[in-house]
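The authors assume throughout that readers already know how a fold can be written as discrete tokens. For illustration, here is how one protein appears when written out as sequence plus structure tokens:
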Amino acid sequence: NTSCRVAIQTLGGIRDLHEIYYLHRDIKPANFAVGLKDDEKDSIVYILDFGMARFFRHKNRQIVPRRDHVRFRGTARYASIASLNDMDSCRKDDIESWFYMVLEFFAGFAVPWNKCKSKKEFFAIKRSFRNKYHEYLQDCTVSKDLLKIMRYIDNMNFYSIPDYNGIRDILIGIIDRMGFRDTEPLDWSPRRHYQ
């Protein structure tokens, strides 16, 4: 339940950032935080650290054209394949980074790039992950749902507008299928321990 709800909220934060025409470019768990426990906001997840954010539209509302080659920025563990290949970032890359983060929520440290050290290793493993998805995630109870999300992301291009609601619907489907309630406190909530 917590993994799904955090995935939904973090996706919403990314959507909100994209709606004001900014890319985050460093989506990872450390760049999200929960509200204070004393004011009932301990179930709200906030997006943080906009130090690498970049505006992706001109004032005339045209998307800034893709640059041919850029220096890698971000955290290789969560970076998109394109970013690891020194390609310019777009909304797709933020969503792909979000996917890798969410994959860790569900699969833990069973992700195949868990022990990678170099950008080159992360790039190679994430590419091969597409062909060995079921092998890597055979013990993950929501692997089919995550595969739908990954395939959707892989079919996006530089100019694609992510279907945030479609991705959210897949996550809500997991919540419904597993019989979770969205009113339950999140795992770290003090309210959880007193019920």
Remarks:
- The mean pLDDT is 91.
